[in-house]
Write a structure and sequence with these properties.
The complex is a heterotetramer, with 2 copies of chain A (324 residues) and 2 copies of chain C (326 residues).
Chain A: E1 3-5, H1 6-20, E2 24-28, E3 52-54, H2 59-71, E4 75-79, H3 90-103, E5 113-118, H4 133-138, E6 143-145, H5 150-162, E7 167-172, E8 179-181, E9 195-198, E10 203-207, H6 209-224, E11 229-233, E12 236-238, H7 242-252, E13 255-262, H8 267-278, E14 288-292, H9 301-307, H10 311-323
Parallel strand pairs in A: 2-3, 2-4, 4-5, 5-7, 6-7, 10-11, 10-13, 13-14
Antiparallel strand pairs in A: 1-8, 6-12, 9-11
Chain C: H1 5-31, H2 45-52, E1 60-62, H3 68-74, H4 78-86, H5 119-133, E2 139-144, H6 151-162, E3 167-173, E4 176-177, E5 180-181, H7 192-195, E6 201-205, H8 209-224, E7 230-235, H9 254-261, H10 265-275, H11 281-304
Parallel strand pairs in C: 1-2, 2-3, 3-7, 6-7
Antiparallel strand pairs in C: 4-5
Helix pairs in contact in C: 1-2, 1-3, 1-10, 1-11, 2-3, 2-8, 4-11, 5-6
The chains are: A alpha/beta (324), C alpha/beta (326).
The complex binds thiamine diphosphate (TPP) (2 copies) and magnesium ion (2 copies).
Amino acid sequence: MRELTFAEALGEAMLEEMSKDPTIFTYGEDIAKQGGIFGAYKSLLGKFPDRVIDTPISEEVLLGSALGAALAGMRPVAEFHFADFLFTGMTAVTNQIMKFRYMTGGQAKVHLVLRGPDGITRSGAAQHSESIETLFMHIPGIKIIVPSTPYDMKGLFKTALKADDPVICFEHKKLYETKGPVPEEEYYIPFGVADIKRQGTNVTIVSTSRMLHESLTAAEYLQKEGIDSEVIDLRTLVPWDKQTVLNSVKKTHHLIVAHETWKRAGWGAEIAATIQEEAFSYLEAPILRVGAKNVHIPFSPKLQDFVVPDHENVASAVRKVLRG
Amino acid sequence: MRELTFAEALGEAMLEEMSKDPTIFTYGEDIAKQGGIFGAYKSLLGKFPDRVIDTPISEEVLLGSALGAALAGMRPVAEFHFADFLFTGMTAVTNQIMKFRYMTGGQAKVHLVLRGPDGITRSGAAQHSESIETLFMHIPGIKIIVPSTPYDMKGLFKTALKADDPVICFEHKKLYETKGPVPEEEYYIPFGVADIKRQGTNVTIVSTSRMLHESLTAAEYLQKEGIDSEVIDLRTLVPWDKQTVLNSVKKTHHLIVAHETWKRAGWGAEIAATIQEEAFSYLEAPILRVGAKNVHIPFSPKLQDFVVPDHENVASAVRKVLRG
Amino acid sequence: MKYSKNFLLGLYRTMVRIRSFETKAEELSLKGEVLGYVHLYIGQEAIATGAMANLSKEDYITSTHRGHGHMIAKGADIGKMMSELYGKVTGYCRGKGGSMHIADLSIGVLGANGEVAGGLPIASGAGMAIKIKKTDQVVVAFFGDGASNRGAVAEAMNWCAVFKLPVIFIAENNHFASTWKEQTTTGKSITDRATGYNIPAVSVDGNDVIAVYEASMHAVDRARRGKGPTLIEAETYRIKGHYVGDKDQMYRNKKEVELYWQKEPIGQFEKKLTEMNLLTAAEKYKVWNDAAKEIDKAVKFAQQSAWPPVESALEDLFADATYCID
Amino acid sequence: MKYSKNFLLGLYRTMVRIRSFETKAEELSLKGEVLGYVHLYIGQEAIATGAMANLSKEDYITSTHRGHGHMIAKGADIGKMMSELYGKVTGYCRGKGGSMHIADLSIGVLGANGEVAGGLPIASGAGMAIKIKKTDQVVVAFFGDGASNRGAVAEAMNWCAVFKLPVIFIAENNHFASTWKEQTTTGKSITDRATGYNIPAVSVDGNDVIAVYEASMHAVDRARRGKGPTLIEAETYRIKGHYVGDKDQMYRNKKEVELYWQKEPIGQFEKKLTEMNLLTAAEKYKVWNDAAKEIDKAVKFAQQSAWPPVESALEDLFADATYCID
Ligand SMILES: Cc1ncc(C[n+]2csc(CCOP(=O)(O)OP(=O)(O)O)c2C)c(N)n1
Ligand SMILES: Cc1ncc(C[n+]2csc(CCOP(=O)(O)OP(=O)(O)O)c2C)c(N)n1
Ligand SMILES: [Mg+2]
Ligand SMILES: [Mg+2]
């Protein structure tokens, strides 16, 4: 199968759906003239001049206008530039977009997509490195996609572009350049369906995005030690595929949840709390979580590596849970 | 002992500390001329005209200016009016206040307090009823106080006013008018020390704020059924008193966490995930969480009652955890 | 006057219907039948009425926390409004929204808003949609003098100016932001704010329905012709408390309030119409009486409507909520 | 000219030191020794230099993502700066901040900022503190033309005007917001934004250090006398890419960039000083040479400094972190 980068897969999803649906338009800071800071919109360069729009640095209107445009019949795709800058327009998301349909008793379909990069780079430091998907899982009203491969990126994003509800998509900065197979034929990936990226019998590792790859790497190392890991990619957090995780845990009796965002009150806690509740008697050891330490992302590379988890942290957690 | 309302206790804390420390000042929307919308500043009416300040409706500057004032040597106390409107200035909190000291390598003490009402009223609806303390537990950089009684309100707040770190205080709207004993003598309550508000042997209920009272009510009902509950008030969420909860669970072998905020990815998940990790072998049943359902707070009273938990939800969870 | 009697009486009728609705809402809120926070539009009726007289159902508006007048002037069903204020299932939002979240998408009302200035980004987005779809719709975004200090207002003005969006900003300057009179707003007039964005701006007497109508007419016309946004400041005065229940009002002088009751828009317009022999005592009586009857019917409808079933609390978050709620 | 040679050469020296630092930072960033995103101040040296010449260590500034020039002009240690850019433990932020979070609280720099316009609320708060403490300090808040479209800027201008705070807003209009030239900013000049807040505003040639110095002098003087904020727009041009690594710059014309290299502030000032016989070739050589030596020393210091110990990553979040980190 042909290979695309993660960025190209996103671009292709946009191109295909925009070609079919004239109500889709996309806008944000520095997207039209240079195809996005991480190149995600290179495929759109020179196309759809009315529907690929550079905007002022005005995040509250940037995000809030997506709601207005959706209510007026369009399907806006607003880029938030860096996940950290969702905060400069946060009220438009949490108080408006995520509440509108509910507050008005279901009067409108709020079909809009917010998307952009999250996660670490090399030395992005505290204000350009955050992963804040947990916030949108806690507060109700938006669906969350967190793809880990070009294949998932394209398929999930195409679904988002057809969805009748608000969707937020977090694209990890370190994934944009990664390559993977993407079929020529059109396909859509439904929300709420996890993908078992590796089958195994001893332990279940639940992850997403960059940490999914770290988990797969950890699984390789662990295999050499005789530990057979099942690695589940949730792919979407709202909704999240509880059943697949439960089934796996009932088989492996051990669970690790691994994400890049802070461990404390991160979404791993939700998975852990839910699974211990629903599969209590199947668990042979406590569920362990792997996540960033409770500080901000520091600038200096070794500090960053220490704060943010990688495959070694996943592997240690697995060893701990299996060997005590 | 004399009784004060929760609002009076807060007012007294402010009055005492402002009288001693000329660097404390407080500001927000509609606080100076009418003593705050929930009357928390009635005790300050007419006092400290330079240090009790009404402001424009400009939440980003309202919140962000607290950082600037702290860096310039003051101890600002900024009122956020409604927890929901933290979002209109959220970036000032998450990107500035909570990161400043860390990003600058510890160059400054960021002594500031953000405070205001959260939680439900009767028909406040989706934009005036939120509890969002979990966000500040997830993202590092601010200490969180969530008092449940006038005594705790005063003691914790006095500590906040002397702290050298950012503190956010959530005061539940339904608590302002509640009364409780407050000694005449000055006292401070340290952060990170839970208060066992009721001793018990069969089950541990961890809670805060309004839900603490619902948990105590539930405990009364349960006592009649022969269930003896221990009710722990965490009082602060960053830091939270893990040891007290662990000790209790090792005794009762059963744990319920109850909060008003959404159950999904709420702070109850953090408590549950941590305790199952650290007291796995002591647990005789899964930890259950009680929280709001995953929708917004609806306007109509019966809908609100259905979405937001009360003592009955706590009691059912206890029964379920003890009886299966 | 260059307007037909029919047209003028139409404006009058709308203002009276708003006033009557609000007077009743106040009474019912004090009684505890109407629930939640209620911010009355009394004294500002000329603004919604004058502005909306230029709009059709296809045009959009974004409203505020003080939004009943906007809804009524845009053509909302008073029964569904009242029922929503009661929290009943027949209300506009099936009892989920209440006064501060009332909306009627079918007539272009993109929501009241519990967040001050929260409507302006939404209005900007509706404007973007219109521009891309190339229709001749317009959007009117209402906000208060207090709201004008929120960053969202500045962002929205610049945004709409940059893209030449068909958005009309109407600042209802009632000189209060809850307890504060003016002191938190700088600039000589809110229209000065438009200068920085190269937006034409005009200040009008917000208690004069014709003045508001005409100013809006020009702005709407400009917007429909693709010339971009306009800011209108409508000067008025908040003669009622900030919300029902704001009793003491220690922050202002009772005399001042009495003074402004003399200038309220309906009385002024009645006087003008009477002087022009366009409104007889009988006609006046009929307008008020019709309004009263309509409101009574609405109240009865609300009272007799059912509470929403509790399970409906879990509906309406998503169009497709599969596995998203539990 | 009414200024002493000493004073003028001081300004010149500061500009040269900034330029030299930035040129070296660019080189080292391309080499990968300096880490993270680096936004160069090259071409804007006159603004930081002219403004800061009015300030003392006790005065505050808030800086931007393009903040090296502000730091140096305010009197920062170049060694600690370079070391921070390397992520070393001897850096200003112990390697935790990098270019975008550099700060020196001891000389009143309340931080660079990775968030566009993020400094303005902070500056407003420092202004409040000064007003309450009744000292004669001032605050200078720098921001870009792109930043001027964020709501925070409008909120801060109104806020500082309402409370008459000693805050000077300096808009560095380099005509670019990353890839965008002007098109996202309306208004004829950023000074027009001040009208809405009744703030005096002036536009100056930001490549003329004396012009910036004088405009700031008046604003600072006004602020010290308790008269409130001023907005200064300093017109300049971003002759380098948005950040080191912004190579193609498809969004602009190479010719335009060359043109503006003719107008860059140091060359202009050198010419002026030379014409006035205040700068000999030897003096000029010495200034550049001293700067180069200082920078070399700084680089060596950075290179020879240790990496921060990993455990230090868990420090500095709180003054008292008991039970807060784990
Ligand atoms: C973002 C936000 N901040 C604060 C509030 C609380 N609040 C509600 S109305 C109001 C005053 C609004 O004044 P103005 O915009 O002039 O409207 P008016 O009430 O005069 O109609 C305030 C502060 C809010 N609802 N939203
Ligand atoms: C709130 C926020 N939005 C977006 C960005 C990304 N960003 C960094 S610099 C920049 C352009 C800033 O332009 P301007 O304010 O004119 O400053 P200049 O780069 O020209 O110095 C943008 C969009 C950011 N850092 N912060
Ligand atoms: Mg007002
Ligand atoms: Mg610029």
